[in-house]
Design a protein that fits this description.
Elements: H1 6-13, H2 19-22, E1 37-49, E2 52-57, E3 60-65, E4 79-86, E5 97-105, E6 110-112
Parallel strand pairs: 3-5
Antiparallel strand pairs: 1-2, 1-4, 2-3, 4-5, 5-6
């Protein structure tokens, strides 16, 4: 009897994993921690600047920074998913900011930020 290496078995088993299990876990805004990578879902409640907006869910709100090379492409009232990381700067300790790396709009359009 021939034994297959474990990584080969894992490759064939991967498609059997439920798609929801493979999706990024959504972090509630009220649960974000400094320095953590997060995926947030919520409503855009305010455009703060040409490269910042405020995102809100049922647990709170947070500032989303999209980078100086990008311009806000969302609108107030729009539901979005933001993938990025929480700034770990001490100045922002009491008002964290998310550095967005990707925004997924309600229509499924995915914007990767540079």
């Amino acid at each position: 009897m021939r034994v297959l290496p474990l990584f080969v078995v894992a490759l064939f088993a991967l498609p059997l994993v439920a798609p929801a299990a493979m999706a990024a876990e959504i972090t509630k805004i009220g649960d974000i921690e400094r320095g953590a990578s997060v995926t947030l879902q919520g409503e855009v409640t305010r455009i703060l600047d040409e490269d910042e907006f405020r995102l809100e869910d049922e647990t709170g709100s947070v500032r989303i920074y999209i980078g100086w090379r990008n311009r806000v492409m969302v609108e107030v009232g729009e539901e979005v998913t933001v993938k990025g990381f929480v700034d770990d700067d001490l100045v922002d300790y009491f008002r964290p900011e998310i550095y967005a790396q990707q925004i997924v709009r309600a229509d499924g359009e995915t914007v990767t930020l540079n």
